[in-house]
Design brief:
The protein has 169 residues and is an alpha+beta fold. The protein has four helices and seven strands. 30% of the residues lie in helices and 28% in strands. Helix 1 crosses helix 2. It is globular, with a radius of gyration of 15 Å.
Length: 169
């Protein structure tokens, strides 16, 4: 198993993972991702910014994760646990449905935490859909503290909950 930065040649495979996850969520009544998000253009920008990582097992794409220091505008009003400086943000964590339930999401989050710690980030911040109970339990089990709700109107009328885990203070 390897986790490495995605390249331009990985775009289609990364997009297939997010589309497969979106379809699986819809099948389970979770309308978190849709045709507009995450789009191929968003993933391309992630690759350009060198913030998209891929999890591979042999030659098989298992999952992806975005690690960025860029704070989304929707996060500006959130009362985070740490100061707004030197924080790492996690976006678009996705494990292909065929490989879910096998610990791969945990491996990606462990990678994110090690990356953040190695690069002296104070904390990791993320959000997850309020209607996705599985994700909420996962992040809480990983030690993330649930904070307040934010909205992404292009994705859903339901809120997204912000989470943060303090690493280095």
């Amino acid at each position: 198993m390897t986790i490495e930065k995605a390249s331009y040649s990985d775009l289609e495979a990364c997009h297939l993972i997010t589309k497969s996850c979106a379809n699986e969520m819809v099948k389970n009544g979770i309308f978190q991702w849709n045709d507009a998000y995450p789009s191929k253009e968003i993933l391309l920008k992630d690759i350009e910014l060198q913030q998209l990582w891929k999890l591979m097992e042999k030659n098989t794409f298992i999952g992806i994760i975005v690690l960025t220091k860029i704070e989304d505008i929707e996060y500006k009003s959130v009362k985070w646990l740490t100061e707004n400086r030197n924080n790492l943000y996690v976006h678009r964590l996705a494990v292909h449905p065929k490989y879910q339930g096998k610990g791969y999401a945990q491996k990606l989050m462990s990678f994110a935490e090690n990356y953040a710690s190695d690069n002296s980030y104070n904390s990791i911040r993320l959000d997850t859909f309020s209607q996705n109970n599985r994700n909420q339990k996962f992040y809480q089990k990983c030690g993330y503290v649930k904070l307040e709700a934010i909205f992404f109107p292009n994705q859903s009328s339901h809120p997204f909950y912000c989470y943060e885990k303090i690493l280095n203070v």
